[in-house]
Amino acid sequence: MGAPPARPGFKPGDRPGFKPDNQNKSDEQPEATYPDKLLVRFVDVEVQPGFRYEYRITMRMHNPNYGQEKLVVDRDFAKPEFLEGKPVESKATAQFPPEMFWYAADEAALDPGFTPKLKGPVKDRQPGTAQAGADTAPTNAKNKPQEKVAFQIHRWFGEMPSTVAARRDPLAVVNWTLAERLLVGRGEYVGKRVPVQLPEWNEAKNGFALAEDVTAAPAPKKGTAPKAPRPQPAQPQGKTFPVDFRLFTGTGDQPALLVDFDGGHRAELSRSKATVEEDSPVEALVLTSEGTLTVRNSREDNFDSDREERHKAWVNWLSKFKEDTDAGGAPKADQFGIPNGRPTGRPSATPMPPGKPGGPGGRP
Fold it and tell me: Hey, is 102 helix, strand or coil?
């Protein structure tokens, strides 16, 4: 008779009770290996806009062996309630972008059509390109040296707290808004509350609508005639809402203040009694909220690329908003190529270059 067929997994000659092939090895488990380092993520919810942060962290965790003396090899492992690792310092600097940028920039000097022209022949009159809230007055009186410095302030808002008593709920702006031109004299704070055109997201309309200050004017006292309204500079038509553009830098509790400035428009009498006028860049000395002094140069700020792009995008946003509103109704979601129907342009995560006040920012 021939040999019986071998069982599956066995070769002829294998003895019963032995594992087939290469399985006849020790059943011992390999020793466990543990990583030297673990990736840990944490969130700092107390950061301030415009600051850089470096971190030194220590991991602290609950001891899973706490109180389990009978289950551990060494009883010392069960004594501490918490376990702490060695301190670790971050190798990179974390940057939280600022939500406000300010410039010694004069839009009226950059744009010849900025200031409204309301006198002269009708054909020469024009409303000007100045947006609502912009100061359109000159920086100096005729044949006089410059008395004020023009500043431009950009401020980012996600949800903006209401600045009027007639409205308590915040405004969903989710964009930059600008004080296009603010005139500041020596010894005056930089920035103020400015009524600007402020598109806000309206959930009921599923689109944007201009925020409006509906606060009623105070009634005149008994026995007094109401005062005639003071003449206002020509501004684009439309609803406006007051925005706080006071310049607070860092953690100070006082707005920045213009100490002095040099340059700008000068007017001097020559020996022949003729008035000689010249213009030069302005250098503004500003006392920040922290009590330090910084200098802004109008030549640099006028042609700062981030400022120009952010200003252009803001003007285009208001113009597009006005066009679509005039066409009927509030602008709808995604009508401007905006993701999810919301304006883009959150502050960029690009670190600010050292020594440059304000630094580059995001743009709409």
Answer: strand
